Amino acid sequence: MTKVSPSTIKAVRESGAVPTAEFLLQVENVRKEFAGNVALDNVSFRLRRGTVHALMGENGAGKSTLMKIIAGIYTPDAGDFYLNNVPIKLRSPLDALDNGIAMIHQELNLMNHMTIAENIWIRREPRNRFGLVDHQELRAGTYRLFKELGIDLDPDERVGQLSVASRQMVEIAKAVSYQSDVLIMDEPTSALTEREVEHLFRIIRTLREQGKGIIYITHKMNELFEIADEVSIFRDGRHIATKASRELTRDEVIRMMVGREISQMFPKVESKIGEVVLSVQNLGLKDVFEDVSFDLHAGEILGIAGLVGAGRSNIAETIFGVTPATSGSIAIGGKEIKITSPSVAMENGMAFLTEDRKESGCFLLLDIQQNMQLAALHGGYVKHGFVQQKRLSEECEEMKTTLRVKTPSMGEKILNLSGGNQQKVLIGRWLLTKPKVLILDEPTRGIDVGAKAEIHRMISTLASTGVAVIMISSELPEILGMSDRIVTIRQGRLAGILDRADADQVKIMELAAQ
Amino acid sequence: MTTTSDAAGLADKRAVKRKFKSEMSMAFVLIGIALIFEVLGWIFVGTSFLGNDQRLSIIILQVSVTGILAVGVTHVIITGGIDLASGSVVGLSAMVAASLAQGSADVRALYPALTDLFPLWPIMAGLLVGLITGWISGFLIAKTGIPPFIATLGMMVCARGAAKWYTLGQPIGLLTPKFTWLGKSYLILGFPVPLPVLIFLGVAVVSHIALGYTRYGKYTYAIGSNPQAARVSGIDIGSHLIKVYVVAGVLSGLAGVVTAARAASAQPTMGTAYELDAIAAAVIGGTSLAGGSGRITGTLIGTIILGVITSGFTFLKIGSYYQEIIKGAIIVLAVVIDQYRRSRQARA
User: Fold this and answer.
1) Fewest Cβ atoms nearer than 10 Å: which of A220, A446, B5, B176?
2) Is residue B5 in a domain?
């Protein structure tokens, strides 16, 4: 079979001829190795026109690799690639884009200092007769696009000002503006509120009706059944199964993903609730949140629920001194303490796993050892200025075993670990400080099912040893499954505190959104 | 059980190997450059470049001052910053130190009451100049949040101005032998070893230990790698940055003292553009201007590479104008190659 050059296909696409093939995109027997590690082993994948096709699998299962091959980021070592039944070879992401394959990245790739319209039409700006950028047409084109997709944003607004959800809308609009037939979405809902997810799903359904094929990567099981038509499941670089989503159950999917039964997702260990360790009174941060009060007991897991943007993370940051409070007080062990910096918080036995692993968690250039030991250096392991490396290395090694961090060596760069393993390293960083109060902000975001269960088990175990835990999460099942009590935040205010026995999804949502 | 620990041990060894891989390849580049000069020497000059047994010690002596600066700027670059002031601070420190190192026989001594001082005083004064300028730069960067480029650019201009103002542009000469011993060579194990070289190597060793094995070092890398994460991990970024700029400043001060001692005199223009050589040495040595990575061993090799190039050009009797043109190109080329290697590594 002769290879047709991408430009030919591009010409065919632009001529308006509608291909009639059953599959929009076909990847057959693809293989990809990285330095001897097989990332994809003889995998085939077929995307039908007008469907949403979900890819499921634990981190490292190969779905990201497959997606990157489809998006032209990686070149496969072996295998065939067909677009509308025509064999094709993609050389670069740009090449993929020109052939109607657009990828919406998990880390959004927009230029923050430029406007929405400029971002969408970059390198294809409409020109006026002097060869200068035609801003009117730029704006008009953006309006047309937004109307088609039901997006309500000002094309002249700078992207840096937008919420994560709005940025995602812009990314999708940009992808659509390329007349893409294939859209790849990598965990698009990981940072969205329920309402934003609904909006996203509406857009996805519109695109599906237009006959586009959508590859949808997610870790969230309920989304799978809500939006996906077909599901492909991967494990250890192999394709396990492709089925219509209505023929599948949640348990079946999980079983195929992990290759074993996960009996209990939220292994809550009943622990003895002790004395008040942390007491927050009328805490406030000007213009962000106010009047937040609650007590936290030893051995307790206090869940904090609420919509994204309600101020949950801000409260955690204020308690830990990242953004010191402007009103109210914080008492630790009955003693009022002014927490003016993270360093003060740590000296008082607190630890804080931040929401954004990449932004404020990992030291990507440093190895696992350095990443894990850094916070512990604040309070100990240093003698006459010298780091007690031997002792510290031993404890890190032990922590690695306890947390089951999968890595050949502690000297490996953290960059090379999967999200779940990175998160374990960061949790290890804080456990080494032996905290009395552990604040976890979205501890399982973007993490595969197996690692998620392990992290849940670990949090429960910690609480049973008397550590007081605050856990912020956007996933209600996680909040409900793990917490002893649940604080719900609405628009910067405390909306209510529910006991484990009284709480359910409906009650929390009622408190969170009114 | 044993198999897993063996595997871990093997992986650790591999990690160590990878860690020094860049130093190994830089050492090869160094040897390569030296061999090129050797061949060119036989072709164009008719003598051997490496055959001269004093060549290496002369090269190291010549780069010892910029070497000290390069070590200091490596600390700063690892935090993600830059120090443009080091060359000017060399000038100011040299002037201040020299003014306290004059002999009583000098009728034109700047401070006639302060002649024939114990050499500790001029040395301390020079270091103090570095400490103060470093602290000011660090303070500005930490507390006002202005970019290091601007803060140290300002300091570069101010320090040079201060050096000229100090004697209204006049040089200071006739420094006492008590002071100039710092710039002399001494027989160690039968070899003549210049003291500036020992100082340079001493500074490098202490820095290597400080960056690798102390809390100071761990925090320096952490801040350069991800300042936000560093802050959440309990690091007071402001006060740490001040420390780092003070270290770089003190090393600039030391370089000034050594310069004055070697020349047995001081001029306000001493150290002009040294900061660029220092930064070039650090960058050739693999320190990333983006911060978070870099090692003193690399800077050491980078410094020597620059020295070999300069020495080789002089040996080949290439005019100084051509030297500068070629040197500039080599600096850029070194970084291009390094970037290419890194991106390949990242992909693997």
Assistant:
1) B5
2) no
Q: What is the pLDDT along chain A (514 residues), one digit of tens a residue?
A: 344 444 445 544 454 444 456 789 999 999 988 766 678 888 999 999 999 999 988 766 788 889 989 999 888 889 999 988 888 888 888 889 888 999 887 666 788 888 999 989 888 888 888 888 888 889 999 999 898 888 888 999 998 888 878 888 888 888 888 888 999 998 888 777 778 888 889 989 999 998 899 999 887 778 888 899 999 998 888 899 999 988 988 878 877 877 755 445 666 777 788 899 999 999 999 888 999 999 999 999 999 988 777 889 999 999 999 999 999 999 998 899 999 999 999 999 999 999 888 888 999 888 899 999 888 888 888 888 888 888 898 988 988 888 888 888 888 888 888 888 899 999 999 998 899 999 999 998 878 777 888 889 899 999 999 999 999 988 778 888 899 999 999 888 898 899 888 888 778 877 876 6
Q: B8, A409: Cβ pair inside 8 Å?
A: yes
The answer as to whether A402 is a domain residue is: yes
Please check whether residues A270 and A341 belong to one and the same domain: yes
Q: Could you tell me how many residues make up chain A?
A: 514
Residues A285 and A328 in one domain: yes
Do B234 and A342 make contact, defined as CB atoms within 8 angstroms? yes
Nearest CB to A385: which of B216, B225, B233? Answer: B216
Is residue B218 included in any domain, yes or no?
yes
CB contact under 8 A, A378 and B235: yes
**Structural domain that includes position B280:** 64-342
Domain count for chain B, please give it: 1
The reply to whether A45 touches chain B by the CB within 8 Å rule is no
Q: Is residue B287 part of a domain?
A: yes
8 Å CB contact of B213 and A386? yes
Q: Would you call B12 and A370 a contact, using CB atoms and an 8 Å cutoff?
A: no
Nearest CA in chain A to B209: A386
Question: ∠ CA(B124), CA(B129), CA(B134), 5° rounding?
Answer: 125
Token code pair at residue B287: 């320190």
Owning domain of residue A500:
262-349+436-444+468-514
Task: Read off the pTM.
Answer: 0.77
Structural domain count of chain A? 2
Residue pair A52/A244 in contact (Cβ under 8 Å)? The answer is no
* Helix locations, chain B, DSSP H: 2-19, 21-40, 55-78, 86-99, 120-139, 148-166, 177-180, 195-213, 215-225, 227-232, 237-263, 274-284, 296-315, 320-347
Is residue A415 assigned to a domain? yes
CATH number (domain holding residue A306): 3.40.50.300
ipTM of the complex: 0.80
Residues of A with Cβ-Cβ distance to B219 under 8 angstroms: 377
Our CA-based measurement puts residue B211 at a distance from the nearest CA of chain A, in whole angstroms, of 10
A343, A477: one domain: yes
Q: Is residue A46 part of a domain?
A: no
Q: Do A363 and B225 touch (CB under 8 A)?
A: yes
B183 located within any domain: yes
CB A153 within 8 A of CB A162: yes
Same domain for A422 and A281 = no
At A199, phi and psi to the nearest 5? -60, -45
Residue positions counted in chain B: 348
Distances, alpha carbon B124 to alpha carbons A266, B75, B92, B129, B253, in Å? 64, 22, 13, 9, 9
SS3 B80: coil
